[in-house]
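Note to self: keep these together.
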Amino acid sequence: MSDDVQPTAADVRAAVEAVKAALDRHLDAIENRTGEDDPAVYAAFEALASAAETYDELLYDTYDEVTPFEVPAPDTAPEYAGPEEPEAITVLIRRDYTLVSPERLFAQARRSSDGDPTASATVNAALGAVFGEYEPDEIAQRHKEFGLEEGDSTLWVAAAEPAEAGEWLDAPFEQADTQQVICRFDVSSVFDDELGVLDPD
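Structure:
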């Protein structure tokens, strides 16, 4: 919802009525389904999810409250196809950031390089200096000090074959296989919390 147009109580009331109607249509589609993959059920599910999301946003914007339920997204994760007792694992982490304060980034880069002016000559140089000096977990915990704003993040723990030192460094992410993922944790402003573990069984 835009900051320029704040929702009204009437908007919230209309949104909850839309959720009620979507619930009725969803149940009706289920009761009259023509098969396991009836497109009418899927369409009603999507409409219900959209209506619930709209209501939740308006409720929060207007009253600073949220609903006690969440309509789950369809489970699109592939089935686990790895070994039951893997000999090795690999941990894949992605964290996204938006650069909101280059000045803070430059200051941290100069500090980490004992005042070397080349460390803060460009954003790329500053990022190299900072990530070369600090552990990624420390940057994640102190991201505001580095002029960064957190975005989405994901962590995968996947089964892997034992590897010799340096064996995969030329292409470290080339072998990522979603069917080898044992558990996964996603954090996103879309959900406003950490999602649970994906059960491989």
